[in-house]
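Example 3.2
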Amino acid sequence: MLIIELILLGLFVGGVTGVTGASGVLIMVPILSTFFDVSLPVILGTSLFVDIIASAAVSFTYGKSKNLDIVGTLWILIGALLGAQVGSFYVVSVSRVLIMLVLALCMFFFGLKMWRSGLSNHKHNTLVVPEKISFYFKTPIGMILSGLVIGLSTGIFGAGGGLTVFIVLYSFLEFPLKKAVGTSSFIMLVTALSGVVGYAKYGNLDIYLGLIIGLSAAVGGILSSIFANKINEEFLTRIIGGLFIFFAFTMFLLKVLFPFLNLNL
């Protein structure tokens, strides 16, 4: 790939991260594995490295707009780091295609709900759990359990984990929309940092490639974060909903349909 193409990829990845707070791995892995002649472990390690740079820029931008809650994520982070380790052990005993199908369906319906609620002038109460249930999720134990769910999904689903972070923060913990995006990007920063260490240890990291895409992603993330923090929540809800639907179809094609067809050839 030419440098200009890598820069454009980084800008797109950063733009998505800045609006959703999610990982760009789902975008980078299929593109890099198709057009770049390196091994999959290097692509995964480099994608996580890009996530660190992009998420750091996005988190900083949302923090400047006071849409980042680090204190409120500490218990969640503890659970997420533990859950990721557990997920990596037990993923082998679960049908990955089935898991990805369930996640894609959940993402699609959640994205559709967000899109429809963005067209309404009413409060987005259809996207949050009842207050009695939400109360327990806001306790330290509830947050650790939520983090475990996030960590498990990150370890099992890979790129889908970043989207799960946003769903947990927005629907279960009732974070305001923009604070959910900003805080989600911070959580993905920490989880990506923990993951890239392992890849770098075994030489599965291309610093040069990661810096080109990562710095471009940082620029795209900052610009999209500024845009997201300035627009009204109804419009932002529709954008996020549309991206969730897009990711749901992408995940279904790449992680469910193609592997299923290959197994039956």
